[in-house]
């Protein structure tokens, strides 16, 4: 779950998140509002129904790790890539990355699904693995594999939001004031992540969302929690 979503829990909004796929849950109205990966919203809009995307929130946090035989996404041809389940956010994002460099994700990549996909990569049983904090930090600290894509730094992925705030269309239409409050709370928490990372990291540890302050602080400093202002301004200028 995005860090700023956790931080805004006391910013005047309430919600419940269970073991659901957020995009479809928003489209169906099981959830009213939530942050989710862009790919989750895109797939849900295509397969389930309309979603009102309210704002881009952050850039980055996802890294693709490869073994010695994989130095780029193009090198995944004929290689194995691990994901927890088909249709998960890592699966969708890695599929898009592969297609972007001309691979056929269905035919060219040997997909391996396993709940313990990280351990498969550690054990050398798969060639590539898409990860996010704190797992990606643990892999780097242990010098297991190497990063072939960092979405916070590498184009074109660093030029796109990884996480968006979306809402059920009917909920947003019927509850504009509540929607505005939730949007402001999320973006306020995002600003805290960007401007006061030490405070944000300490709160995450104090509330037992993560045990390691150093990893939380590293995540906050390495990822672009301030891009929502920059990208929003750019979009407004282009529109005018």
Helix content: 40-55%
CATH class of the largest domain reads Alpha Beta
* Approximate shape: globular
The named CATH superfamily of the largest domain = Periplasmic binding protein-like II
Mean pLDDT: 84
Count of domains: 2
Strand content is 15-25%
CATH topology name of the largest domain: D-Maltodextrin-Binding Protein, domain 2
Strand order of the largest sheet: 5-4-6-3-7
Query: What is the SS-derived class?
Result: alpha/beta
Order of helices and strands: HHEHEEEHHEHEHEEHHHHH
What is the CATH-assigned architecture of the largest domain? 3-Layer(aba) Sandwich
Structure description:
It is a single chain. With 240 residues, the chain is α/β, with parallel strands linked by helices. The chain folds into two domains: 3-60 and 159-235, D-Maltodextrin-Binding Protein, domain 2; 63-150, D-Maltodextrin-Binding Protein, domain 2. Helix content is 46%, strand content 17%. It has twelve helices and eight strands. The protein has helices at 3-7, 22-28, 38-47, 89-100, 105-108, 117-122, 135-141, 169-174, 176-195, 197-206, 213-222, 227-239; strands spanning 33-37, 51-58, 63-66, 80-83, 110-113, 128-131, 146-150, 163-168. A five-stranded mixed β-sheet has the order 5-4-6-3-7, sandwiched between helices. Strands 1-8-2 form a three-stranded antiparallel β-sheet, with helices on both faces. Helix 2 (22-28) crosses helix 3 (38-47) and helix 10 packs antiparallel against helix 11 (213-222). The longest helix is centred in the last third of the chain and has 20 residues, at 176-195. It is globular and about 50 Å long.
């Amino acid at each position: 779950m995005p860090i700023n979503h956790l931080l805004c829990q006391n910013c005047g909004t309430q919600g419940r998140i269970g073991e659901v796929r957020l995009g479809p849950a928003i489209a169906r109205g099981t959830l009213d509002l939530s942050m989710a990966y862009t790919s989750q919203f895109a797939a849900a809009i295509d397969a389930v129904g309309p979603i009102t995307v309210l704002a881009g929130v952050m850039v980055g946090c996802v890294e693709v790790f490869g073994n010695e035989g994989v130095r780029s996404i193009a090198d995944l041809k004929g290689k194995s890539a691990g994901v927890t389940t088909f249709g998960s956010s890592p699966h969708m994002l890695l599929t898009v990355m592969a297609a972007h460099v001309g691979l056929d994700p269905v035919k060219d990549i040997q997909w391996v699904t396993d709940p313990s996909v990280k351990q498969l990569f550690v054990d050398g049983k798969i060639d590539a693995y898409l990860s996010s904090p704190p797992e990606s930090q643990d892999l780097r600290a242990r010098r297991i594999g190497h990063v072939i894509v960092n979405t916070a730094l590498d184009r074109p992925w660093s030029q796109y939001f990884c996480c968006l705030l979306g809402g059920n269309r009917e909920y947003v239409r019927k509850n504009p004031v509540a929607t505005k409050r939730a949007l402001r709370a999320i973006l306020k928490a995002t600003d805290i992540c960007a401007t006061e990372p030490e405070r944000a990291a300490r709160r995450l540890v104090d509330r037992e969302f993560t045990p390691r302050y150093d990893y939380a602080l590293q995540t906050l400093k390495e990822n672009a929690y301030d891009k929502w202002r920059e990208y929003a301004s750019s979009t407004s200028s282009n529109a005018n």
